[in-house]
Every structure is written in structure tokens, then in C-alpha cells.
Amino acid sequence: MNTNRWIARKETNWKTLDKLLQQAEKKGLKSLSATEIKQLASLYRSVAADFAKAKTNNLGNTLTQDLQALTARGYNQVYQGSRRQEWRDVQEFYAWGFPQIVRETATYTAIATAIFFLLFLIGWWYAWHDPVFLDLTVPQELIEKVRDRGELWMGFIVGNEPLASSGIMTNNLGVAFKAVSGGATAGILTIYIMAFNGLHIGTIGALVTQNNLGYPFWAFVCPHGSLELPAIFLAGGAGLLIGKAMVFPEQYRRIDALKINGTKAVQLVFGIVPMLIIAGIIEGFFSPSPIIPNALKYLTGFIIFGFLILYLSRKKRIYSNSI
């Protein structure tokens, strides 16, 4: 092989790759056009082959080392760079994208929330005025524990925090995913889940309040509920988005409406999952703790909810050079 001729033929590719890598290393892959990114990937594969050839044919330590360094830099951008970009995209989503999609779909979340609280009030009212309704909707052993013994039922969590926390997370994620997937039933299952949970919590709320246990009960609910309940409402909104696309696609074809609203629903799910994981940890370790004063639990819940509102209100500023 004529080494000098081979180097002269390949040198242009090496220099072009080096130039593209310098730009990517300084400004990131996003600074390259789609064509340049394809060119970078193609040149990386070509230079990797050149490096292997130089090493096999002993074309000199300097050339081999230069090609090795160029190949390593190309690998970092083609593979590691794409992973870094994916991580930056994840950070960008949680910093700005999730709050934005929550605001865009706020109407559907509001409807899901209204369904929940309407049934919450109905459950509270009937449980307060009709003992038969209470007996039909709440397990008898729970009624006896609260009404007859004056006790709440969350004590079992203490001493079993890790297991209880993981079980709570699994249950809450299951409820959220059912609420979202319920959109596939034209939203009927989603509405049922929101109504059922509202009715259930309203009935329990009336039971504990009637028996002078409302303050410690809501102190237990407040810290984790400040994240858990909004997450469930967002899941309900995501399900209603899908249901709306099925029933009322408006100017879109039904399949296109499902793609558009389905994408928004998936984005909501990505944001909901961390909320429910954090809520599960709080519910397993903080909310039931007997050594934490109830007043502190209420304060913690209000602070968490306040930060959640501030976070969901975040808007990314777009700066313009125009006057």
C-alpha cells in the first residue's frame, strides 16, 4: 500500500470530521444541521475504519494515535453525545415542558377535578345523614374501628415503612394509569374512577369527622395528598383528553385527534409518575409518623402544594433581539 497516497486521499475526511467535532464539542450537536450530523456519523465510521487499517498495517505511531484520538472524539459525540442530549431533553421537559403541557390541558384537568369533588361532597353529605349509605360504602371493620374504638387505621404503616411505601406507590400508579387508559372507553372509565375515588374519600372524611378524628386524619392526608391528589387529577385530565379525541375529534380525523391528544396524555404521564413516587415516599415515611406533630404535617402539605403551584406556573422566557 502506498502510504502517502492513502493519507493524501483520506486527509480531507479527517480534517472535515475534526472541524465538525470541534463545533459539536464547543456548541453541542444542536449547533449542527441535520445534514452535518449525518456527515459526522458517516465520517466517524470511515475514520474508525482508517484507524483500524493504520493500526493493522503499522503506519506509524503518530498517525495511529491521531486517528485513535479522532475516532474516540467521534464516538463521544455520536454515542455519548446523543445520550447527553437525551438527558438534556429530559431535564428540559421537567423544567419547562411539563408545566407547559399542564397549562395547555388545564380544562380537562379541571373537569376531572370537578367530578372528583362533586362526588366527594355527595359522599360526605349522604354519609353524614344516612347511616345505611355509610354501611354500604365503607367496610364494617373500618366503621367499628373509627366509631366504636375511636381509632384511625394508618398505624400499621409504622414499622413497615419501606414495604408500605412501595405498596402505596404501586397502588397510586395503578389508579393513575387506569384513569389515563380509561380514555380508551370514550372517557367513561376515567369518569368512573374520578367519581369513585371522590365518593370514597368524601364518605371516609364524613366518618372520621363525625367521630372527632378529622384533625388527625386530614393531618395524615395533607403532606402526601398535596402531590398525590393533583397527580390523580392530571391523570383524569389525560384520560379525558383521549376520550375527547375519540368522541369529538372536531376538524381532525379521529386517528389524528388520538395522536395529538395521546401525545399530550403521555407527556402528562411522564410528569405524574415522579409526583406519585414522591407522594408514596411521604405517605410511607412522613405522614403516619406519630412523632411528627399534626400541625407540622399540615404545614408541610401546604408548603409542598405551594411549591407545586409555583412549579406548574413556570414559563420559559423567549428573548428576542427585535426592537
Automatic annotation (TrEMBL):
<feature type="transmembrane region" description="Helical">
    <location>
        <begin position="189"/>
        <end position="209"/>
    </location>
</feature>
<feature type="transmembrane region" description="Helical">
    <location>
        <begin position="295"/>
        <end position="313"/>
    </location>
</feature>
<keyword id="KW-1133">Transmembrane helix</keyword>
<feature type="transmembrane region" description="Helical">
    <location>
        <begin position="106"/>
        <end position="127"/>
    </location>
</feature>
<keyword id="KW-0472">Membrane</keyword>
<dbReference type="Pfam" id="PF01944">
    <property type="entry name" value="SpoIIM"/>
</dbReference>
<feature type="transmembrane region" description="Helical">
    <location>
        <begin position="268"/>
        <end position="289"/>
    </location>
</feature>
<dbReference type="InterPro" id="IPR002798">
    <property type="entry name" value="SpoIIM-like"/>
</dbReference>
<protein>
    <recommendedName>
        <fullName>Stage II sporulation protein M</fullName>
    </recommendedName>
</protein>
<feature type="transmembrane region" description="Helical">
    <location>
        <begin position="152"/>
        <end position="177"/>
    </location>
</feature>
<feature type="transmembrane region" description="Helical">
    <location>
        <begin position="229"/>
        <end position="247"/>
    </location>
</feature>
<keyword id="KW-0812">Transmembrane</keyword>
